[in-house]
Amino acid sequence: MKQIDKYLPFVLQHENIARIEDDALLVGDRRLYPFKKEFYRCEDLEGAAEAIEKMVTQGGGPVHVAMTAIKLLAARAEAGKSAKDADLFEQAKQRLQRSRPTNTTMARALDVLVARVTAGIEKGQNIEQIAEGFINAFKEEYQQNALRMAEVGASLIADGDGVMTMCFAETSFILSIALAMEQGKQIKVYSPETRPYFQGARLTAPCLQEIGADVTLITDSMVAYMMSQGKVQKYMTAVDIITRDGWAANKVGTFQNAIAANYHGIPYFPFAIDPDIGRVGRDSIVIEERDPEEVKRVKGELTTREDMQAYYPAFDIVPPHLIAGVITPKGLVSPYQLEQVFGERV
Amino acid sequence: MKQIDKYLPFVLQHENIARIEDDALLVGDRRLYPFKKEFYRCEDLEGAAEAIEKMVTQGGGPVHVAMTAIKLLAARAEAGKSAKDADLFEQAKQRLQRSRPTNTTMARALDVLVARVTAGIEKGQNIEQIAEGFINAFKEEYQQNALRMAEVGASLIADGDGVMTMCFAETSFILSIALAMEQGKQIKVYSPETRPYFQGARLTAPCLQEIGADVTLITDSMVAYMMSQGKVQKYMTAVDIITRDGWAANKVGTFQNAIAANYHGIPYFPFAIDPDIGRVGRDSIVIEERDPEEVKRVKGELTTREDMQAYYPAFDIVPPHLIAGVITPKGLVSPYQLEQVFGERV
Q: Between chains, do A256 and B260 touch, taking CB under 8 Å as contact?
């Protein structure tokens, strides 16, 4: 298998997402990138949950942080530093799952991991090894899936294309651009800054610059204008969830960009490892509402009056008819055919 | 005629936009609002042009600042402090017109004002009085037009409506909300922050709060989501230009919001005193491209890498088929009928 790390920028290299060092969990602090490459130290489970809540990491990061937090708990139980108790892991799982309610990839991985750990406790097995085995297999599968999706993504990008994205579409997208460039295609990428957290300005644009891509930063309000100027041929983003009938939730703004793409005849291709097969329709997706204070501030500084009313839905939902095809490890799949293609995994 | 000042927030009261004091031009500094109510002092014509370029004032402000700058020049000529020379006024006009190329309201007002001043110089008349007379008549007509547009705007807002706006739609819009509230209608207004200059966060939301309206600040990426939740029944903005065949330029983002409104069946009503009758079609509008550094920073602080490539088109253009009707002093006019309704003014 192709080694993907060589294509990836610093923040996406696996050991820079989450790792255990000196009995603590270190999380690559994406809030400080690209200005600093530092790690946020979590001493315990609560610290890890808070790191996810505070968006120290985001996108594809939380699932790795959450699983590694469970592994740390398992290591401590095996070392006799804490109880080897199924309830403790169940509570830990629930605490982590509450940290980002829209992130069902994390929720589902934790369900399986904690079920295995709990079974291991019952059988008197080494749960640290169980956790480590599960996480290594997950990581291996994650990277293989990212590579397969990136091969599909790269194949959809034509020489001379302008590609619009939103927020931070992580490994699959960055790798798609890297592979398309390796194929000799001239590409321009447009990265909206993604208020209020600036993931586009802080993560996507610097990551693309780091791998040598021609990337241009814009504000979130310029997407349709760029499309109207003929600068954009493809629109590609990650998704946090896609339901089995093709409703895709991602960072707020993804939906209005998809509407603008559709208006301009530009295809929208979201990346998804697989659908959340247990969910059907828009109403099955819980939209996380974050602290409205974040909308009123940039790096802590107010942009409006202190007493202003604000609202911060963190995600929005794209309906299947605005999706040209879902980039999955199984190839490009119609949003109307996800259930048939992925149904056997239920 | 109804006195409109009592309905208006601080920044929109006429004497707080531009006035002459102690042989200098004072411009209400909208960059500091709502945190400070201060005035930017321009010592000469160049200072006034720079104030407009630096967005000390914006939207409907530049036309008043530019005309007042011409009046200051005329006053100085009459006082013998500078030459009473037509070329000087012609150069001043051109300098001011270059300061915001998309703002044709300012350009057209300056053309008429400077033509009158030049004629006055030829005839040996008092050009300070000529300038003052023109400006007073302009202001009176401006306020009457704003009131008529606001009456139309208020009549389009129904009890219980949610109204989306963009950037800072100035007197006509704020007054529409004030009049609708006076009519006893319960209204919610949603104000996107309007990156990179935050006119929504700094001007629109605080102005609406100041007049007691129920306003909620969102980011520019949340517009379509709010619409999808059924919270928005009307979309209303100012325009910087509307051509005689109904192409409307306004702050970048206005276009993608109009696409999202159309997608959700929400009517878009821009405010315009009159069309720019000399312009036809999208290509007749010059889109000002501002310094891309502004996209990379918030209050001077970088949001991305220093060496990042960025792009800053300041406006975008809404096609007539996305406009439900133009709110004008002559009532609600179809974007396809502007030429018939306003043609006699050519």
A: yes
Q: Does B299 reach chain A within 8 Å, measured CB to CB?
A: yes
Encoded tokens for A227: 């499309």
Between chains, do A255 and B224 touch, taking CB under 8 Å as contact?
A: yes
φ and ψ at A297, to 5 degrees? Answer: -135, 155
Smallest CA–CA distance from A198 into chain B, residue: B303
- Show residues of chain B in contact with A253, CB under 8 Å: 219-222
Q: Using 50, 70 and 90 to split pLDDT, how confident is the model at A1?
A: low
Q: Tell whether A29 and A139 lie within a shared domain.
A: yes
Range of the domain at B279: 157-345
ipTM of the complex: 0.90
* End-to-end alpha carbon distance in chain B: 27
pLDDT tens-digit profile of B22-47? 999 999 999 999 999 999 999 999 99
For residue B280, the domain's CATH number is: 3.40.50.10470
User: What CA–CA distance (Å, rounded) separates A185 from A177?
Assistant: 9
Number of separate domains in chain B: 2
* Tokens 């890498």 sit on residue: B305
State whether B202 and A304 contact (CB < 8 Å).
yes
Distance in angstroms (rounded) separating the CA atoms of residues B336 and B323:
10
Task: Tell me: pLDDT of B59 over 60.
Answer: yes
Residues B232 and B336 in one domain: yes
Would the pLDDT of A346 be above 50? no
**pLDDT tens digit string along A193-204?**
999 999 999 999
Q: Is residue B298 part of a domain?
A: yes
Name the one residue in this structure whose structure tokens are 């239920």. Answer: A346
A306 is a domain residue: yes
How would DSSP label each residue in A268-307? EEEE-SS-BTT--SGGGSPPPB--GGGGGEETTEESS-TT
* Domain closes at, from A118, A143, A168: A143
Q: Identify any residues that bridge with B20 across adjacent strands, giving them in sequence order.
A: B25
* B337 lies in the same domain as B212: yes
**Do B14 and B111 sit in the same domain of this protein?**
yes
- Whether the bond between B34 and the residue before it is cis, its omega within 30 degrees of 0, is yes
What's the pTM?
0.90
What are the catalytic residues of B? 240
Contact B217 A304 (CB under 8 A): yes
The answer to whether position A311 is within a domain reads yes
Task: List the CATH number of the domain containing A136.
Answer: 1.20.120.420
Instruction: Verify that A339 and A213 share a domain, yes or no.
Output: yes
Per-residue pLDDT tens for A102-134?
777 899 999 999 999 999 999 999 999 999 999
Q: What is the pLDDT of residue B346?
A: 43
Which pLDDT tens digit goes with each residue over A15-35? 999 999 999 999 999 999 999
CB of A13 within 8 Å of a chain B CB? The answer is: no
The reply to whether B255 touches chain A by the CB within 8 Å rule is yes
Based on the fold, state whether residues A231 and A312 are members of the same structural domain: yes
CB contact, 8 Å: A240 with chain B? Answer: no
Interface mutation vs chain A, best among B199, B210, B222, B288, most A CBs within 10 Å: B222
Closest by CA to B276, choosing from B123, B103, B130, is B103
Is B166 found in the same domain as B125?
no
| Residue A224 sits at the chain B interface (C-beta within 8 Å) | yes
**Option in B34, B220, B308 nearest A305 (CB):** B34
Q: Which residue in B180, B318, B307 sits closest to B243, CA to CA?
A: B318
Query: Touching check for B228 and chain A: CB below 8 Å?
Result: yes
Nearest by CB: B304 against A34, A301, A313 = A34
Q: Which residue of B has its CA nearest to A200?
A: B304
Q: Is residue A150 part of a domain?
A: no
Domain shared by A255 and A130, yes or no: no
